[in-house]
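DM from R.C. (forwarded with permission)

"hey, sorry to bug you on a friday — could you get me a structure for this? deadline for the figure draft is monday and I only need the backbone to look sensible"
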Amino acid sequence: MRVLAMAAAVLVALSTLVAPAQAAATLIYRYEIINRAASWLTAYNGGRVPYDIYGRQDGYRTDCSGYVAMAAKLDKPGPITQDLPGLSTSISMSELKRGDIVVDAIGDTWRDRHVVIFDRWVDPARRDYGYFAYEQRGDYGTDHRVRGYGLEPYTEYRARRLNNVIDK
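My reply, with the result:
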């Protein structure tokens, strides 16, 4: 009896050390990411979804990484920004396609990190002009505007391709 109790205690202890299996990410087309990202421009009573790290919209956090999770159909409430590199592959800025992300996952607090969804280059011939991106930003909410993250020298922003994106 004592051996069985001890074996059960060991199994319980071991089960807490093993991380639970993560659900397979839902595959998604690039156009779907862009359409879903654009949907938050009018999803909050006809207006932009407000930024709030504690808020929720459709089960997703209403911060930048929650927004990316919603657009890409990642698990709810969404990974935090510093976890996005583990769900994506590094690419060069010149390889960006609609639905890819540009992320700064480095920093001690959530205020130091940010992520945007790449839409398109302002001028494909002059990529240094910037690109249109969807983002969820503080004191504003959902936005679609020209950004230059990742283009400036010595930046911590990196271009990444989410692993669940279907290249179409």
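R.C.: lifesaver. The beta strands are 28-29, 52-57, 60-62, 88-90, 101-104, 114-121, 131-137, 141-147, 158-162, 165-166.
me: no worries. Residues 98 and 119 are 5 Å apart (CA to CA).
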